């Protein structure tokens, strides 16, 4: 009994997204029993790769899942969201491409250097956001509006007003699959990002501090935590996530398109955080919830496309489903449900007790 | 006999996950009486009030309020207000970033047009007549905790009501303000208002109340007329122990004068909130700041801890000059600080009891040395045991603990860091009589083990019991210092009032 309660407390926040995911899966199985079947096929670079809707959902959700993790941290620490992630992602991609094109030839070493440099550049831009939010106490939404509006122009300008192409098998390996490995590479990048954050949470007190600052800044300071540093840290980690996502995005197309790279991802990332049951006002968070949220959003999109819904209508249907999930996870509905649940369970025992008393 | 009742609660039950907060509790309030609701921390007093005012839905039982027919249906605090129940909750529920006047009149418009100018004038009038040192246009967050508490009271009292509920309204008030509140209560009582009064100050209960209802562990112990229940018996009923067990409680250990070494010394220390002052404390000494509300006692210790912006002064710790400009500096120098306002400065509401207990220790260990879960659990268990914190589990969010138990968690947080010098600003605020004495004993024991402690309390007797030196403040200046045989209630009062040479 006690153990059971503990378990529930652990996954309580995840119940709604898990149920949502389960319903989506059931719905698809009902609609098309073969929807999730996985097969092997040869892709256009001649590799044996896994195919099927499931693989494509997990693969396409990669950028979103990675950015959602970073967004969760910023949300928790600052009580607001960064809407510039897509635009800053374009900058990051531009820096990555710039480094690769600057080298005589694209070698693995250069790619690693490119990743490191674009990561640093992204962190620098995120520090700009973070400083506005933490030092100048500007609402995150407003503070990040600046880079949201000019980020893509900066990305365009970095490569001398061009949309350069990258023709290299290494780049294709990043965006698609590594020869000999049937699983798409972006999936590994998600795992890498997840492990990196896990390591940070294990080896430092980031998790505790971020939540403390998000819940009560003043009290955090009185306990020796510097809220400014913690908020900057959350933006820095978001920067790392954004740069990884941008590298995947560049890899998928083999080119830098400043207009389309990670476009509109900010809204999906914020939604993923919300669907994951995280409080958009900051404080307690669960990365796993946001990751789950990202895959739910992608599965929803893929499902709608598979049902031949026209792209114009996809957004509307998506909005409807998301509203349902978010409302079901809202505190009001949750409290009602749990009250109902406890009444149903104690109903029997209470009746017996009152009979005994009478 | 009960025809003059204004409020009857029967068989009230309320269950929280892991806790049965109320079990079959009856409560009756009569017209024109002051009814004290008593019990230890976590007994269920605040829960009973919140069930009555619609903050929580009850699981069982009935509520009847005069003028509402068979049964009152109260599903929100607004409902309660509409049928004439006016409440001051234990944790201040005003809006910190609204003005005092807005806080006093918000939610009362009932449809008619609001003329803020009129309200501001009216608010100023009320503030003045009650002697509350605040202005109508002032932002509430700029007021001290005591003033906020008085504004909350003024708001409740100004509403036309037949039931007035005061949940620990005096926890941060001084004698003068308490006396004023009691005058107000007696006045309302003579006009037929029934008043529910929750407090842990026994003298206050006996000063104003007519009747007492005692709760223990969510169960009703009984209802008594004040004359029939002497103080000792009341305590026994609350704690559920025999009188013999209580005999040793009054016996607090010897006060510690401290050794020779000076642990902390400040010269002309000043902050954005306090004027320059000199201050020092020796190893193993327990001293205290005292003074009226707004005298600057809390601001002074905040300056010591670097809680406000430091504007000047020289500080030495263990004889070595150091710079303390933020709380983290103070912690590194072995100083701990339990803040006065636990809701604003103390608790991390959504975090678990465990995380709240280990927080300060974790910060001192450093960013790259996170404690293991097992370690945290062990520490949390140790202090939940030691301070008898009543909680469903370590994982319970601290916000769902009773007020007094939250206070114990914050105290545990600082005890766990084993500081050389611990500053306690109102450590027993909202803590029940039994535990209060335990904490006083604990402070003296810590001092014996060479910890230096600065103790602030709005209760002078409590200060006299633990402090060997009292620093008296008035108008943000130190105006006197009392030690040894000078430490008497009369002397303190005289110095506070300004009767010194
Ligand atoms: N929102 C809540 N969720 C879960 N448990 C709660 C909640 N509120 C109160 N409790 C539990 O119910 C019990 C009674 O709490 P209550 O606040 O009524 O105590 P109290 O008598 O007011 O104590 P105090 O003197 O410390 O204020 C406590 O054990 C507390 O942990
Ligand atoms: Mg209470």
Structure description:
The complex is a heterodimer of chains A (358) and B (501). Chain A is an all-alpha fold and 358 residues long. Chain A has a single domain, classed as ABC transporter involved in vitamin B12 uptake, BtuC (Orthogonal Bundle). Chain A has 17 helices and 2 strands. A two-stranded antiparallel sheet of chain A has the order 1-2. Chain A starts with a helix and ends with a helix. By secondary structure, chain B is α/β, with parallel strands linked by helices. Chain B folds into 2 domains: 5-243, P-loop containing nucleotide triphosphate hydrolases (Rossmann fold, 3-Layer(aba) Sandwich); 255-334 and 421-426 and 449-501, Rossmann fold (3-Layer(aba) Sandwich), CATH 3.40.50. Chain B has 18 helices and 19 strands. Chain B has helices at residues 45-52, 77-82, 100-105, 116-129, 145-158, 175-190, 202-208, 231-239, 243-246, 297-305, 327-332, 342-346, 353-365, 373-386, 403-416, 433-448, 460-466, 489-497, and strands at residues 5-16, 19-30, 34-38, 60-65, 85-88, 163-167, 194-198, 211-216, 219-225, 262-271, 274-282, 286-291, 310-317, 320-322, 335-338, 421-425, 452-456, 469-474, 477-483. Chain B has a 6-stranded mixed β-sheet, sandwiched between helices. A 6-stranded mixed β-sheet of chain B has the order 15-16-17-12-18-19, with helices on both faces. In chain B, helix 13 (353-365) crosses helix 14 (373-386) and helix 13 (353-365) packs parallel to helix 15 (403-416). The longest helix of chain B has 16 residues, at 175-190. Chain B is globular, with a radius of gyration of 23 Å. The mean pLDDT of chain B is 89. Chain A binds chain B through residues 5-6, 9, 202-206, 208-209, 211-212, 215-216, 218-226, 283-284, 339, 342-343, 346, 350, and chain B through 15, 17-18, 57, 59-60, 305, 307, 326-328, 331, 337, 339, 344-351, 355, 359-360, 362-364, 366-370, 393, 395, 413.
